[in-house]
Amino acid sequence: xxxxxxxxxxxxxxxxxxxxxxxxxxxxxxxxxxxxxxxxxxxxxxxxxxxxxxxxxxxxxxxxxxxxxxxxxxxxxxxxxxxxxxxxxxxxxxxxxxxxxxxxxxxxxxxxxxxxxxxxxxxxxxxxxxxxxxxxxxxxxxxxxxxxxxxxxxxxxxxxxxxxxxxxxxxxxxxxxxxxxxxxxxxxxxxxxxxxxxxxxxxxxxxxxxxxxxxxxxxxxxxxxxxxxxxxxxxxxx
Length: 238
Description:
CATH 2.40.240.20; 11 strands
């Protein structure tokens, strides 16, 4: 069963032009067929097509079901984009499939890329979420300066603040991420650029309460590190 994304389902029982084309022209759904929809906020809808038009496919809702997230914590990946934009797109796609809930693109001292097309990344996230039958659509934020991001993560008023981790390659005492993750607790994970975080950035993160972690013995590319960190956090909560 394919999953169609309908963020405006409260106001309209019609798929977007892009989703309509995929449903009717590509997948050959017809009037009377049953389809599965999600609003991206955790509700799944079973619907029946009433008008199979390739630009405005209309439907009636048969059933709505609110579903819990696949995991009991919120996973926020904050990563400095690589020079190769395709690697960033691959990373966002795979982390979405694995279960990331939120992305922030970081502008760091040694960043080699300081701009990304958020609209393109949002389309990649949507495609990956639909492919993996994810009912909660991850959020992605515009490029954010490193210092501004870590300031935004300090002083949480939550009764159980998120665990905050920074992965870097400098020689220091670090915990293995798999040993540091606490089940059910939100996670914020910092992944640096290809040239790593600067020593000043690492120091600033530690002063703000981030815990230095290792992702293993291998030296990983930025996009690989993000995927490994995402998978480790999800796996340790299974």
